[in-house]
Amino acid sequence: MRAILLATCALGLVAPGVAAAADDDGTVAELVVTAQKREEKLIEVPLSVQSLSGEAVERSGAAKVSDLTKLIPGASVVSSTTPGFETIQIRGVSSGTTGDGLVGYYIDDTPFGVPNLQLTPPARLLDLERVEVIRGPSGTLYGQGSMGGTIKLITAKPDPNNFSGKAQAEISATEGGGTNYNADGVVNMPLIKGQLAARLSAGYERLSGYAEAPELQRRNVNDFTGKNARLTLGWEPTDDVRLTGFVWIIRNDQDFSNSLTPKNATTSALAPTPFNLPGIVGTGGRLGYTDVDADIYSATLNWSTSIGDLTVNTSYVDHELDFITPLLTILVNESNFHTKSYTNEVRLSSKADSPVRWIVGGYTRNAKIRSDIFYYSQATRTAAKTGIINTLGTIDTDSYSVFGEVSAKFFGGLVEPLFGLSYFKDDRSVDGVDRATGAPRVGQLKFDSFNPRFNLKIKPAENGTVYLNVAKGFRSGALQTPAQANAANVTLGLPAGTIQTSVQPDKLWTYELGTRWEMADGQLLVEGSVYRTDWDNVLVQFATAAVISLANGGDAKIEGADFGMAYRPDGVSGLTLAATGNIQNARFKRVVGNLSVGTAIRKGGRVPNVPEMSFTVSADYKRELSALGGLTGTAYLGYSFRDDVIDATVKNLKAGELNDLTVRLGVQKDNWRLEGFMLNGLDDKDPVALGSTAVQILYPRRYGVQLAVNF
Description:
Blueprint: H1 2-11, E1 18-19, E2 32-33, E3 40-41, E4 49-53, H2 54-59, E5 75-82, E6 85-90, E7 103-107, E8 110-112, E9 128-135, H3 139-142, E10 149-155, E11 164-174, E12 179-192, E13 196-207, E14 224-238, E15 241-255, E16 289-304, E17 309-327, E18 331-349, E19 356-377, E20 386-408, E21 415-434, E22 439-461, E23 464-474, E24 478-479, H4 482-492, E25 502-503, E26 507-519, E27 524-543, E28 548-567, E29 575-591, H5 595-598, E30 613-625, E31 631-642, E32 645-646, E33 654-655, E34 658-669, E35 672-679, E36 687-690, E37 695-697, E38 702-710
Parallel strand pairs: 1-4, 7-10
Antiparallel strand pairs: 2-3, 4-9, 5-6, 7-8, 9-10, 11-12, 11-38, 12-13, 13-14, 14-15, 15-16, 16-17, 17-18, 18-19, 19-20, 20-21, 21-22, 22-23, 23-26, 24-25, 26-27, 27-28, 28-29, 29-30, 30-31, 31-34, 32-33, 34-35, 35-38, 36-37
């Protein structure tokens, strides 16, 4: 049996486990992850999991959550309006930017999510210990929002024994834009030796922008300013008890946004600016902005008891998205979405050496999003405003879940089956008013779901794992206004009632076979998986000049494979090579008949915003330069490719291939490092996302220099 399994693994795909740090002995670092809500060595985890060290994230040039997609196989950006107003997809599970999220986000043990909007955390990736990525549904342990996967930002924890800190600053120039600069700093302060410590991190970022606004006679109008500060306290009164709490304040402000004029715009008003000169036109002389603010509070208790490890987390997130978007000369979207979310989770897990491993727990969440939407037409800036959508309302969601998993080892640890189950219930209410008609907006929705997971882990050798994982993903449905539904039907040329006010829940099942191996005496980590996802009642978003609307579009099937590696060759000291990638085919196997009339959705057609292939390769090299007084030279080269994606609304509309190159060269010694860098080195201006009225591109090429100091 062991021989058969070894042969199977040898024929398996090499896959994306890590962007790894290296041990002093030259091996790839032995990584520990918490994907199954317990600390485990990565090689032991029977899931498609990545662990990206904080250093690896930094050297890739990733500054925000959406930047991580180039390191995650099967992931891509669906929309990137401004930092914090972004949406990503993993493994083909994509449904636009509205509706509840399809990727679960956690900051340590604190969940982040906004009801009815698929938003990434607006955090700058500063002072992180690592980032963990679970590809595929993980609803048993992580609940709603993890249909496609889960991303966990693991922050650096206070050290009660040593005073330390670091600071870095950089300055760069934007191709076709202006000067950018940022500065970040971290200070770790023991307050009671060995027990209590504080860690303060803060950062400021200024991007010049690069888009022209001909009607305003201004350049670089989409400039961005980001500010954030995080204070973490850690108290360890005994060896068995640890209390950690943090406050993270984030302020992201951008003039206009990163939504630009597409070259194939369907309205002649957009014609003055060609695509190769990124522009924001059709403003009617109006100024726009996009602001994202978040205050995140979290407290976590970890208590190692005699019967198991207890974790208690309570958190509060205050999030606000505020924007004014002028478009098509006479149309303006002036909206505000303010969310307050309270979450509590309690879980107890067995000891790591227990012959039967188990975890049980539950969580509750109350979230309220207040939506103030005023979408209107105005012939001139002094003319009367004619409302298209003018609503004020609150969606209140009260949800809870109970969950558990249990596994046991058989045949001397060769085989370990696992069964998990969660029950989720969500009560939602809508209370508001259509200010144009005075009609109230009142409604209630109730959702519940049983969500199992089956896993079979096989250990054919100490340095390898093979696994079969079957899991269900789910999320709640949604309500939209009659004005949204009616305007979408008219604009898309659909029969009345095709797009309705009530959007039903969607769900999926994913079946996955994977393997992970540590080879060449620890020099090489490889991982591979193949998967199939059956997705029922797919929620699809349609974006037109008139409105954004949602509809249950039909059923889809997704088939794919992940691959990659991390390699630290013994013969070349200081060199780390990595590769990650994905191929997949995401297509509709059933479509609600009327939708194919006026949209790009059709039976056998691709799921929108999903590439069929993506990959990243990188090399990171450090070598002592004796001729330069003992300085160490540093070099990093990373290249990412993403295949084209289609739009949901407009037939035959594609966003082309992306080619993203990152280069870093520098020197370091003792406690400082000086590097020059180039981001988007090929200055690729092909669309990240493309619609009938807007296009989003990679930030243009940037050249710069960074100085970092540790103390």
